[in-house]
Write a structure and sequence with these properties.
The protein contains 11 helices and 10 strands. It is α+β, with helices and mostly antiparallel strands and 338 residues long. It folds into 2 domains: 2-91; 110-337, BirA Bifunctional Protein, domain 2. The protein has a 7-stranded mixed sheet with strand order 1-5-6-10-9-8-7, with helices on both faces. Helix 1 (2-18) runs parallel beside helix 4, helix 3 (38-44) runs antiparallel to helix 4 (52-92) and helix 5 (110-124) packs across helix 10 (310-318). It is elongated. The structure holds phenylalanine. Phenylalanine binds at residues 179, 181, 221, 259, 262, 281-284, 305-307.
Length: 338
């Protein structure tokens, strides 16, 4: 019987040695250690042995063989699992130095593409491009935009403050701009009307990323200051932009809304040829307090402003489902938008 046990064990170990896949191991595990396995079968013959000593040593040999087989299975399973993992890692590896056929040229990110196209369209409508800093003062971002300390609208901007407490004990006077509207103020202060500018740029809000929100995103601001500017000029500009950017079969509408820095204020929507609407952004006539903060006399000058999200335009244009995909920088996603 001892010979049978040794033969069964060696046969099992040889089978395990050549097992090539995790499935093989699973099959071997039930075959070798199960009730119908050779060793289990030999065990049923223990009762036929004559002496207690023989039974003891044969029983012991069977147990030893079982545990040798079981640990060989464990070892082989571990090796195959490691192989399977590294094969998978290798298969999914991105080799950024690899190219097939002719070398491909890089291209602008889809948000940059939308940004540049927006600039082009507005330049075509007679606007100039302005810029402002991403780290702003509370004054430019809120106060000068008719949102004094304690104004309830501040709460809607989940602001990221750069320094919470200044040496003189003031709280949150420097921040990451929550919108591009502070560029309105800077432009009014730095230049003389007439002003026709757009200001694209990065903005920041304390937001948890999800399919439609990122804590860092992009807006484009528009500001027009001239004599006798009216709401009709605003509506006409939005309509001209809509047709130039989306196509002549798109139209726009304004809906009454509220922003502290414009009066009256509106939201503007774009209508697709199929009749459905896309909410685009906010706009309105520049509030007299904002003109004054910008050093302009509201009796002499009037104007309108608008602002909307660039990322959302890119998402809309390309049918991107999850805005986070635009920032993961997976080349397999990005290269679809060359
Ligand atoms: N700054 C506003 C926002 O981020 C948009 C806006 C800009 C509204 C200009 C009116 C005028 O929501």
């Amino acid at each position: 019987m001892l010979t049978d046990i040794t033969a069964a064990r060696d046969g099992a170990l040889a089978d395990i040695e050549v097992a090539a896949t995790l499935d093989d191991i699973a099959a071997l595990t039930s075959r070798l250690l199960g009730k119908k396995g050779d060793l289990a079968q030999i065990k049923t013959r223990l009762g036929q042995l004559e002496s207690i000593d023989e039974k003891k040593s044969a029983g012991q040999a069977i147990n030893d063989a079982m545990s040798a087989v079981s640990s060989a299975l464990d070892d082989r399973r571990a090796v195959l699992a490691a192989d399977a993992l590294s094969a998978r890692v290798e298969a999914e590896r991105l080799d950024l130095t690899e190219y097939v056929g002719k070398p491909t040229r890089g291209h602008a990110h889809l948000v940059t593409q939308a940004w540049e196209r927006l600039e082009d369209v507005f330049i075509g409508l007679g606007f100039q491009v302005a810029e402002g800093p991403e780290v702003e003062t509370d004054w430019h971002n809120f106060e000068a935009l008719n949102m004094g300390e304690g104004h309830p609208a501040r709460g809607e901007f989940d602001t990221l403050f750069v320094d919470h407490v200044t040496p003189d004990g003031k709280v949150g006077t420097t921040l990451l701009r929550t919108h591009t509207s502070p560029v309105q103020i800077r432009t009014m202060i730095e230049s003389e009307p007439p002003i026709y500018i757009v200001a694209p740029g990065r903005v920041f809000r304390r937001d948890t990323p999800d399919a439609t929100h990122m804590p860092v995103f992009h807006q484009i601001e528009g500001l027009v200051i001239d004599r006798d500017i009216t709401m009709a000029d605003l509506a006409g500009t939005i309509e001209a932009f809509t047709k130039a950017f989306f196509g002549s079969d798109f139209t726009s509408r304004l809906r009454p809304s509220y922003f502290p820095f414009t009066e009256p204020s509106a939201e503007f929507d774009i209508q697709r040829p199929d009749g459905s609407w896309i909410e685009l952004g906010g706009c309105g006539m520049v509030h007299p307090n904002v003109l004054r903060a910008g050093g302009l006399d509201p009796e002499e000058w009037s104007g309108f402003a608008f602002g909307f999200g660039i990322d959302r335009m890119a998402k809309e244009r390309h049918g991107v489902e999850d805005i986070r995909d635009m920032y993961t920088n997976d080349i397999r996603f990005l290269e679809q938008f060359s």
